[in-house]
Amino acid sequence: MKRVTLRLPEQQLIMIDRFVELGEFPSASEAIRTAIRDLIDQRSEKLAGRIQLFEKAQEQAKVAGSFLHMKEKH
């Protein structure tokens, strides 16, 4: 695992410390790793949905283009 240094607002650090104190996470590092993992999972799902829509639109554009090309020939 690589080490990353980051700056967070004090209020966020206080909340992370509270989560650790309440036993929600074993450490602040684990709380931050979990938050990042959750964000990546969430964004990946949204991105996958966008990719599917984009691919579908591309396919529909190809079909429409082929249809117009055939129509112009006749």
How would you characterize the overall build of this protein?
The chain has 74 residues and is mostly helical. The chain has one domain. 78% of the residues lie in helices and 0% in strands. It contains two helices and no strands.
Can you tell me the overall shape? rod-shaped
> Sheet bearing the most strands, described?
none
Q: State the total count of DSSP E strands.
A: 0
* Mean pLDDT, all residues: 88
List the quaternary state of the chains. single chain
Order of helices and strands: HH
Q: Provide the β-strand percentage band.
A: under 5%
- How many alpha or pi helices? 2
C-alpha Rg, in Å?
A: 24 Å
Residues in helices, as a percent range = over 70%
* CA-CA gap between termini: 63 Å
Q: What count of domains describes the coordinates?
A: 1
> Spans of 5+ residues with little confidence (pLDDT < 50)?
none
Structural class: mainly alpha
Summarize the structure.
The chain has one domain (10-73). 78% of the residues lie in helices and 0% in strands.
